[in-house]
Amino acid sequence: MKSFWFNNPNTAHTSTGVRPFKLNQSSRDEHSFFEVIFFVDNIKYTYQLELDPSVVYLEKLSYYKTTQPVKLFERTLEDGKTVITYGDIKIDKAVKDNITALCLNNMSFFAAREKVNAQLPFIDAAKEWMRGKIMKTITPSLNLTDYAQSKSSGDKDLNKYIINFLREADFNISDIHTNIAEQNIPDEVLDMLLNMKNIPEEEKERLRNQKKHKTFSDRVSSYC
């Protein structure tokens, strides 16, 4: 879902990336449904998504002032066009129109919102939670050691949590230092990466612009 939220398809004909359940005869032709319930600064949010490989039918974000959800935005598909309505939030009409114009039928509201210079309270809080708190999909090609190092190297709170966790497990570790080095990606390797289907468009764009990758090495300090 994270790659869908912030992916910017080149055209309205690009796949949403969802893969329907295919172990029976009916579900492969049905819509896929997702729901995420999460908390940001002790505020409860609910996110709902309905889509198929071609288009998004429903995308909705709500939050809770009391026990009942309050709509922040709801995006639907009407007569083949994306329609976005807003609830308990004040947004300038020009901003609303701009987001709607940028939101293709096969992309997330959040990808369109990224392109508009505006402040959207609560919606932006949820967006940054989605960006920073959802782990990328674990695939056979994902190097979990590199992933863990990349996350802990820039997050002091996470690093502290890991060290305290290891202490509770009776590991004699006082600190973890991560050294980060950038290396250029050879042209032939870059071409191969840009042609891989399982790499999100957002990451491909970063590779095109930077043409570098980071390597990590850890140094562990122990108590004497």
Characteristic key phrases:
224 residues, 5-stranded antiparallel sheet, 8 helices, alpha+beta, 32% helix
What's a concise summary of this model?
With about 220 residues, the chain is of the alpha+beta class. Helices cover about 30% and strands about 30% of the residues.
Describe the structure.
- Helix content is 32%, strand content 29%.
- The model has no long low-confidence stretch (mean pLDDT 86).
- By secondary structure, it is α+β, with helices and mostly antiparallel strands.
- The longest helix is centred in the last third of the chain and has 13 residues.
- Strand 4 and strand 5 form a beta hairpin.
- It is globular, with a radius of gyration of 21 Å.
- It has a five-stranded antiparallel sheet. A two-stranded antiparallel ribbon has the order 6-7.
